[in-house]
Amino acid sequence: MNDNYKEFTLTRTIFFISDGTGITAETLGRSLLSQFDMLSFEYQTIPYVNTKAKVKQTIACIEQAYKNDGERPIIFATLINKNISQLLQKSSALFMDFFQQFINPLENELGHKSTHMVGLSHGVKNYTDYMKRINAVNYALAYDDGANTTNYDKADIILVGVSRCGKTPTCLYLALQFGIYAANYPLTTDDMTSTKLPACLANYRKKLFGLSIDANRLQIIRHERRPNSVYASLKTCKDELKYAENLFHDEKIPYLETTTRSIEEIAAEIMILTHIKRRLSI
Question: Would you list the domain boundaries of the chain?
């Protein structure tokens, strides 16, 4: 094995460490590392590192990872407590603290000291927004997979597509992130006996948005759910997708191909294409 090939097959351990939930550190860290998709990473998130005992345990994990990998780990941190931050900087890892990097310049620019309080970005700061999020999630769950079609008047959007093309996770993300009331309806073999919209959708044409996916990818997803079934066969996948896309074209329903898109990307594109306004202030 030559050195160049070895370089690209090593696994580096990535730690997301915080004295809060760790969500911010993980989100920002993963976003940065996505630019290095030729490399292999092992991820560990360690939240609530807020005592010397927890710091000691965390450093032990870091040192063990260094020993196992033969390469120093990388730490992405969001730490308010400077003493804890300084202790972690002594470990055998590349240490990057997002708060240290950005808080001081912001304090200088804004002319005010930060609160230095843990968990503010993920706490319940706005009860009205919190309830909007909860209500939107409840709606997405109640109107998932065509289980209930009686209250589509309240929907901001109704996602339509064949089974396992990404409708449910997209609806939940729209609800959690934007407070959007998102329902979804699966096109089934019963619907495919007609070239027209299912009756329950006919009056909501302006709310409809379609999702499609590559047939080979759909087969893989369905095979994991129901191995060696007609439902998971490539022919079934191709036939259903062809029907769905023809329906979208005939009924002038906008749609996205989801194969290479993440749920976040699908949701963001839907928001742009439909001009739906988010209900949450943050």
Answer: 3-122, 127-274
Token code pair at residue 160 = 């339509």
Q: Is 117 helix (H, G, I), strand (E, B) or coil?
A: coil
Domain 127-274 belongs to what topology?
A: Rossmann fold (3.40.50)
Of the candidates 267, 255, 257, 261, the one whose C-alpha atom is nearest the C-alpha of residue 174 is 267
- 242-259 pLDDT, tens digit per residue, is 999 999 999 999 999 999
State whether residue 174 is helix, strand or coil.
Answer: helix
| Distance, CA of 168 to CA of 191 (rounded, Å) | 19
**Model confidence pLDDT, tens digit, residues 207-253:** 999 999 999 999 999 999 999 999 999 999 999 999 999 999 999 99
Place of tokens 């963001």: 268
- How many beta carbons lie within 10 A of that of residue 269, not counting itself? 14
- Establish whether domains 3-122 and 127-274 are of one fold: yes
Asked if 161 contacts 170 with a C-beta cutoff of 8 angstroms, the reply is no
3-122 is a CATH 3.40.50 domain: yes
Strand partners of residue 159: 184, 209
